Amino acid sequence: MKVILQQDVRGQGKKGQMIEVAEGYARNYLLPRKLAMPATADAVNTMKLREKAKKAEDARLKAEAEAIVEKLKNSPVKVTARAGANGKLFGAVTSKEVSDALQAQYGIELAKQKIVMDEPIKAYGNYELKVKLGYEVSGKIYVMVVEEK
Distance (Å, rounded) from C-alpha 18 to C-alpha 39? Predict the structure, then answer.
């Protein structure tokens, strides 16, 4: 019997997949627990439409991510921080501060989780940070840490 999975089922497949299972397994286990639905013509068409919509949404999100990467190339972010006499910062510049500065200076919203920092910035200077936006799109952001006056 052909069924379309409504949820991931261990050993059978992922949500949205059409699989062939024994009739008893479908009737006694998958269908009563709402893990699957029979693969009728309407259900198959609905599944294909959902798949098509998901691909279109993924393409749109990937294009947005690529546009953000292009904006970041031309947008050096200036972050101000206080430091002691030897130039060592009080605290550190974190990805949250970089994200907030990017929003304030250029209007680009970027979640702090998408900014990859090996370690927090603890001194003045210019830094190059990696940004991972998902959908196999990544770029670089240039950060200038300057003295607060």
Answer: 7
What is the biggest distance separating any 2 CA atoms in the chain, rounded to whole angstroms?
Answer: 77
Dihedral of CA atoms 92, 93, 95, 97 in degrees, nearest 10, equals: 120
Let me know: does 140 contact 113? Beta carbons within 8 Å. no
Selection from 84, 116, 80 nearest residue 97 by Cα: 80
Can you give 118-144 as a three-state secondary structure string? CCCEEECEEEEEEEEEECCEEEEEEEE
Kindly report whether the global pTM for this prediction surpasses the value 0.85.
no
CA angle in degrees (0–180, nearest 5) for 75-80-81: 145
The terminus-to-terminus CA distance of the chain in angstroms comes to 73
Q: Does residue 87 have a pLDDT over 80?
A: no
Report the SS3 class of residue 145. strand
